Amino acid sequence: MSTGIERESGSDPRFAEPYRALVRPEGARFIEVLDQRELPHAVVTKRVTDVDAATAAIRDMVVRGAPLIGAVGAYGLALALDADASDAALERAHAKLDAARPTAVNLRWALDRVLARVAPLPVSRRADAAWCEADAIRDEDVAINAAIGRYGLELLRALGGEGRAVDVMTHCNAGALATCGFGTATAPIFLAHDEGLPLHVIVSETRPRLQGANLTAWEMASRDIPHTLIVDSASGLLMRRGEVDIVIVGADRVAANGDVCNKIGTYDKALAAADNSIPFYVALPSPTIDWNAVSGDAIPIEARAMDEVLTIAGASASGERVAVAIAGRGTNARNFAFDVTPARLVTGYVTERGIARNAAELHALFADRGN
Ligand code: MRU
Fold first, then answer.
1. Which of 4, 81, 128, 216 has the fewest CB atoms lying closer than 10 Å?
2. Has residue 2 got a pLDDT over 60?
3. How does the average pLDDT of the chain come out, rounded?
4. How many helices (H) and strands (E) does the chain have?
5. Atom of ligand 1 nearest to the CA of 252
6. What is the 85 CA–ligand 1 centroid distance (Å)?
């Protein structure tokens, strides 16, 4: 029986530099994704051919990052409708995909968008319309990344000068691997590097899933961008020493009052940045804004398995994947995947429509939104 998810090892040129986290080959009724759990040790692609596989890819973090899981969710609905486009199947698939991960609002946003597009149509036309809508979500994300990159680039240019490298700190992975394009927080970094602005990126490892060490560092290395990996708890020290010019992070959900939910550890960085008068920016695609969440308190924080904290996983010298225990038997752990940074600690939100300095400016930028 097909699992709907097939594994192919090796280097697929479509994921070569510039790599893509998600590909829908022309006209295909499936998608291919990079298995991010394998990076940086191997480049492995998976073919996702049904809704269960799409759900599993999101739930098991084959794909991750708010914009990317939104796009994969949208394609997951299209896959579901290829099998059965009835009202009941549509509702079931929406609920299944929506339950895959709770925090990043892009998933619900994308699912609702596809649902709204296809529900009024006759059953026979729904699947094609869902594939079109998923493609549109993917393509818009690419354009959003580019616009965030252009606005964020101005911030980096303003900090540069006299040949000195701008020290940019980021957290987790808000890069190409988290999106359909070339990232949110990384987009300004990639553009600045491409135009020759000297940069040095400080990447925090992002325990427990190590998105910084495994993914962001890999993205920087594959573009030859000077970067240094630090443990999460070293951020404050570097800021106090004057070794950080700017912090740019992504977001999984931003509340209407500007509170930012992002990878666990983001709040600590924002506090240290404020204490050291270092600008703290959030790269924010508009589908990540939850206009219905009054504040960060309304955002569900994903709690993950304690094993992720009690062990650490990597590759041995021979390339074999290993996970080792880092705490003795009898120790419990709590594993919060995200935290909330209060709006007062945010210097600005870099969106596809420009930079907002506060929630009021964010509302003004998106005054024409539909909800
Ligand atoms: O748990 P993940 O890897 O899906 O979380 C992703 C993040 O929190 C990223 O830092 C990011 O800012 C949001 S996606 C651009």
1. 128
2. no
3. 94
4. 12, 17
5. 13
6. 31
